[in-house]
Write a structure and sequence with these properties.
Structural class: alpha/beta
Low-confidence stretches: 198-208
Number of strands: 5
Radius of gyration: 17 Å
Shape: globular
Strand order of the largest sheet: 1-2-5-3-4
Mean pLDDT: 83
Distance between the termini: 10 Å
Number of helices: 10
Helix content: 40-55%
Largest sheet: 5 strands, parallel
């Protein structure tokens, strides 16, 4: 997805990436408390044949029910935030740019709680995001619309942003936007900063 591409490009330039999705997947492994709490709430219908989580089954439940989505967030978010902060703090006081790679953010107060000093939003028009989910990830349109609807309003994300990466164009434009962002991050000039990037759930455009 586009978040992975932007993160990889920033990592190539020297950034430390603290990936929320990777952390969540690790914390949701069988035997971990988050896994146990999820199975306790939703039962065997979210357990795959190999004993791990059936992530599509979880998505089918939570992205069509606001109460269930809230319940999932209450189970997952506290431990995930704690682990992200632990990984970021390893580099405190260094000259490394630390990027907290997040699919969801609740605003500037949430960013501050995570130790972030800047917010970068990867943005594209809502209809483009929906079309990319359908085209590149084979989402039924209704599911794509539900996922986008459960994200924070686009206008709010842009209002929170200290820097916006425009992901509405092709691959070449995105590469130029990433380079522009990297130059900006380096210009912040404070050792130990932890810029936080807001990641869109839409996959990349162009031929990728």
């Amino acid at each position: 997805c586009i978040r992975d591409r932007v993160s990889a490009a920033l990592a190539e330039r020297g950034a430390v990436i603290v990936d929320a999705d990777a952390i969540v997947k690790e914390l949701q492994e069988p035997g971990r408390p988050i896994y146990a709490a999820m199975v306790e709430r939703w039962g065997d219908r979210i357990v795959a044949e190999d004993g791990g989580l059936d992530r599509q089954a979880v998505a089918d439940i939570v992205f069509n029910d606001a109460d269930e989505l809230e319940a999932l967030n209450e189970i997952v978010h506290p431990e995930t935030r704690a682990e992200m902060r632990r990984q970021a703090e390893v580099h405190a006081g260094s000259d490394r740019v630390v990027v907290l790679d997040l699919p969801l953010l609740a605003g500037r107060e949430d960013a501050a709680k995570r130790g972030a000093e800047a917010i970068v939003v990867v943005d594209c028009p809502t209809e483009v995001a929906i079309e990319r989910l359908v085209r590149f990830r084979s989402f039924p349109r209704a599911d794509a619309e539900a996922r986008i609807a459960n994200q924070v309003d686009r206008e709010k994300r842009l209002e929170w942003a200290d820097f916006v990466i425009d992901n509405g164009g092709d691959e070449a434009q995105l590469a130029a936007e990433i380079e522009r962002c990297w130059e900006w991050l380096q210009s912040l000039g404070t050792c130990g900063r932890a810029p936080l990037r807001w990641g869109s759930l839409s996959p990349p455009s162009g031929s990728v």
